[in-house]
Protein backbone atom coordinates (compact mmCIF):
# COMPACT_ATOMS: atom_id res chain seq x y z
CA UNK A 1 0.00 0.00 0.00
CA UNK A 2 1.48 3.33 -0.98
CA UNK A 3 2.68 5.39 1.95
CA UNK A 4 2.31 2.68 4.58
CA UNK A 5 5.40 0.46 4.70
CA UNK A 6 4.96 -3.29 5.04
CA UNK A 7 8.07 -3.73 7.17
CA UNK A 8 6.94 -1.60 10.12
CA UNK A 9 3.86 -2.64 12.03
CA UNK A 10 3.42 0.72 13.75
CA UNK A 11 3.47 3.66 11.36
CA UNK A 12 3.55 7.32 12.36
CA UNK A 13 2.91 9.41 9.25
CA UNK A 14 4.43 12.78 8.63
CA UNK A 15 2.52 15.61 7.09
CA UNK A 16 -1.14 16.33 7.50
CA UNK A 17 -2.79 12.93 7.14
CA UNK A 18 -6.13 12.73 8.91
CA UNK A 19 -7.90 9.67 10.25
CA UNK A 20 -10.72 10.28 7.80
CA UNK A 21 -8.30 10.41 4.86
CA UNK A 22 -6.73 7.14 5.94
CA UNK A 23 -10.11 5.46 6.34
CA UNK A 24 -11.01 6.52 2.79
CA UNK A 25 -7.73 5.06 1.55
CA UNK A 26 -7.99 1.77 3.46
CA UNK A 27 -11.70 0.90 3.20
CA UNK A 28 -11.73 0.21 -0.56
CA UNK A 29 -8.79 -2.14 0.02
CA UNK A 30 -10.91 -4.29 2.32
CA UNK A 31 -9.43 -3.05 5.59
CA UNK A 32 -11.55 -2.89 8.69
CA UNK A 33 -10.54 0.44 10.20
CA UNK A 34 -10.95 1.32 13.85
CA UNK A 35 -10.32 4.81 15.16
CA UNK A 36 -9.09 5.32 18.71
CA UNK A 37 -8.41 8.50 20.65
CA UNK A 38 -5.02 8.45 22.40
CA UNK A 39 -6.49 10.58 25.18
CA UNK A 40 -8.55 7.53 26.20
CA UNK A 41 -5.49 5.23 26.15
CA UNK A 42 -3.30 6.76 28.85
CA UNK A 43 -2.91 3.58 30.90
CA UNK A 44 -2.61 -0.10 30.09
CA UNK A 45 -6.10 -0.89 31.49
CA UNK A 46 -7.60 1.93 29.38
CA UNK A 47 -5.78 0.68 26.28
CA UNK A 48 -6.98 -2.88 26.84
CA UNK A 49 -10.58 -1.78 27.46
CA UNK A 50 -10.73 0.43 24.36
CA UNK A 51 -9.13 -2.21 22.12
CA UNK A 52 -11.49 -4.90 23.44
CA UNK A 53 -14.49 -2.71 22.74
CA UNK A 54 -13.37 -1.42 19.32
CA UNK A 55 -12.27 -4.82 18.03
CA UNK A 56 -15.12 -6.73 19.68
CA UNK A 57 -12.86 -9.11 21.56
CA UNK A 58 -14.60 -12.08 23.18
CA UNK A 59 -15.74 -11.79 26.79
CA UNK A 60 -12.91 -14.01 27.99
CA UNK A 61 -10.27 -11.44 26.91
CA UNK A 62 -7.88 -11.24 29.88
CA UNK A 63 -6.76 -7.61 29.44
CA UNK A 64 -3.05 -8.42 29.55
CA UNK A 65 -0.32 -8.50 26.89
CA UNK A 66 -0.57 -12.25 26.23
CA UNK A 67 -4.35 -12.05 25.86
CA UNK A 68 -4.00 -9.05 23.53
CA UNK A 69 -1.57 -10.98 21.35
CA UNK A 70 -3.92 -13.96 21.23
CA UNK A 71 -6.92 -11.82 20.29
CA UNK A 72 -5.05 -9.84 17.65
CA UNK A 73 -3.79 -13.05 16.05
CA UNK A 74 -7.36 -14.38 16.10
CA UNK A 75 -9.05 -11.30 14.61
CA UNK A 76 -10.08 -13.14 11.41
CA UNK A 77 -11.87 -15.75 13.51
CA UNK A 78 -14.38 -13.22 14.83
CA UNK A 79 -14.09 -10.21 12.46
CA UNK A 80 -13.82 -11.02 8.77
CA UNK A 81 -11.84 -8.42 6.81
CA UNK A 82 -9.15 -8.17 4.17
CA UNK A 83 -6.91 -6.38 6.68
CA UNK A 84 -7.08 -4.48 9.94
CA UNK A 85 -6.02 -0.91 10.65
CA UNK A 86 -6.04 0.75 14.06
CA UNK A 87 -5.88 4.49 13.54
CA UNK A 88 -4.83 6.16 16.78
CA UNK A 89 -5.33 9.91 16.93
CA UNK A 90 -3.31 11.98 19.43
CA UNK A 91 -0.74 9.19 19.67
CA UNK A 92 1.43 11.24 22.04
CA UNK A 93 -1.11 10.51 24.76
CA UNK A 94 -1.04 6.70 24.34
CA UNK A 95 0.26 5.10 27.55
CA UNK A 96 1.49 8.50 28.73
CA UNK A 97 0.96 7.45 32.34
CA UNK A 98 2.89 4.21 31.75
CA UNK A 99 5.49 5.07 29.07
CA UNK A 100 7.45 1.88 29.67
CA UNK A 101 4.48 -0.10 28.33
CA UNK A 102 4.52 1.59 24.91
CA UNK A 103 7.38 -0.56 23.63
CA UNK A 104 5.57 -3.69 24.82
CA UNK A 105 2.45 -2.56 22.95
CA UNK A 106 4.51 -2.08 19.79
CA UNK A 107 6.10 -5.52 20.22
CA UNK A 108 2.74 -7.22 20.72
CA UNK A 109 1.23 -5.55 17.66
CA UNK A 110 4.34 -6.34 15.60
CA UNK A 111 4.26 -9.99 16.61
CA UNK A 112 0.54 -10.26 15.84
CA UNK A 113 1.00 -8.49 12.49
CA UNK A 114 3.83 -10.83 11.47
CA UNK A 115 1.72 -13.86 12.46
CA UNK A 116 -1.34 -12.69 10.51
CA UNK A 117 0.73 -11.97 7.42
CA UNK A 118 2.65 -15.24 7.54
CA UNK A 119 -0.22 -17.57 8.46
CA UNK A 120 -3.20 -15.88 6.82
CA UNK A 121 -1.84 -13.32 4.36
CA UNK A 122 -3.70 -10.54 6.19
CA UNK A 123 -2.24 -7.17 7.17
CA UNK A 124 -2.56 -5.57 10.60
CA UNK A 125 -1.46 -1.95 10.86
CA UNK A 126 -1.40 0.53 13.70
CA UNK A 127 -1.24 4.08 12.37
CA UNK A 128 -0.50 6.76 14.93
CA UNK A 129 -1.50 10.34 14.10
Strand order in the sheet with the most strands: 1-4-3-2
Give the end-to-end Cα distance, rounded to a whole number of Å.
18 Å
Reported by name, the CATH topology is Barnase, Chain D
Provide the gyration radius in Å: 14 Å
Low-confidence stretches: 1-10
* Strand coverage percent: 15-25%
Helical fraction equals 40-55%
CATH superfamily: Barstar-like
Structurally, the number of domains stands at: 1
**What is the N-to-C order of secondary-structure elements (H for helix, E for strand)?**
EHEHHHEHE
Quick check: average pLDDT?
A: 86
Extended strand count: 4
Q: What does the largest sheet look like?
A: 4 strands, parallel
Tell me the structural class: alpha/beta
Report on the structure:
The protein has helices at 19-26, 44-54, 65-73, 75-78, 100-120; strands at 10-11, 31-37, 83-89, 123-128. By secondary structure, it is of the alpha/beta class. It has a single domain, classed as Barstar-like (Barnase, Chain D). It has a four-stranded parallel sheet with strand order 1-4-3-2, with helices on both faces. Helix 5 (100-120) links the parallel strand 3 (83-89) and strand 4. The two termini are 18 Å apart. Mean pLDDT is 86; it is low at 1-10.
Amino acid sequence: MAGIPDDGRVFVPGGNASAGDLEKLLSPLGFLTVRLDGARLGTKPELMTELASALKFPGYFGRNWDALLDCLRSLPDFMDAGGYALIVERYGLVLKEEPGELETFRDVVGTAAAFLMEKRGIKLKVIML
